[in-house]
Amino acid sequence: MRLVLIHGAATDSRAWHQTIDALHAHWDGDEPLEILAVDRPQTGDWDTECAALAPVCADAYVVGVSGGATLGLELAARGVPMRAALLHEPAAGSLAPGLLAHVAEGLQREGVAGFGRALYGPLWNPSATEATHETVRAEFAMFGAFEPRPLTIATHRVHLSVGELSPPSRHDSVHRLAGFLGVDTCVIPGARHAVHLQNCYWPHILDLLQTRAAAATNA
């Protein structure tokens, strides 16, 4: 069983280390669990990012947060055959105009540091990324231009989540996006946008893996 973890902008695979440790500690499935936290090329180009992710995400369970969640939706729209995807607070395009305005302001005022703090909150710090201002600006332009499209994989395979403590704008964007795509949603107790940095996403990832594994066994 392969699990792929996708990071967002202004961060890298290190953001997942607590999640990985927790999943390995609690996994008790019959099938060995392979966890791959990818380091994306961070080019700001959809085709390049998806080309890098598609081979490892095919036939895998995919989890993404923020921009990583947005990429998960793009992969699902492009028909990458994921077993299931759990995606936390992706961008929503014209369904949620102004959602990322505060992040744009942070980038303009304080560069990468302002961007990271505005997007992820106080658990993020500049040591979390090696991305330059130009890289983050290109990534933000890509995600800011995202427009959701109908999925070309079965909608029951895709799940959206939102943090209980995330602002109303995030709850609204996830609700609108789920309605447009025809997918289900869940609220992560005590969580905000940076759910992986809070180390409170792993129980929900574990539940997804265990539920799917049980369904496959009983099929």
In short:
The chain has 7 helices and 6 strands, in the order βαβαβαβααβαβα. The protein is of the alpha/beta class and 219 residues long.
Features:
44% helix; 6 strands; 14% strand; six-stranded parallel sheet; 219 residues; 7 helices; single chain; alpha/beta
Describe the structure.
It is a single chain. The protein has helices at residues 17-26, 46-57, 67-77, 101-120, 133-144, 168-181, 202-218; strands at residues 2-6, 34-37, 61-65, 84-88, 158-163, 184-188. The protein has 219 residues and is α/β, with parallel strands linked by helices. Strand 1, helix 1 and strand 2 (34-37) form a beta-alpha-beta unit. It is globular, with a radius of gyration of 16 Å. The two termini are 17 Å apart. The model has no long low-confidence stretch (mean pLDDT 96).
Shape: globular
User: Sheet bearing the most strands, described?
Assistant: 6 strands, parallel
Level of helix content? 40-55%
Q: Helix/strand/pairing class, anyone?
A: alpha/beta
Number of strands: 6
Total helical elements: 7
Strand numbers in spatial order across the main sheet: 2-1-3-4-5-6
Can you give the mean pLDDT? 96
- The rounded distance between the terminal residues' Cα atoms is 17 Å
Radius of gyration: 16 Å
Q: Which spans of ≥5 residues are poorly predicted at pLDDT below 50? A: none
Beta-strand residue fraction: 5-15%
Order of helices and strands: EHEHEHEHHEHEH
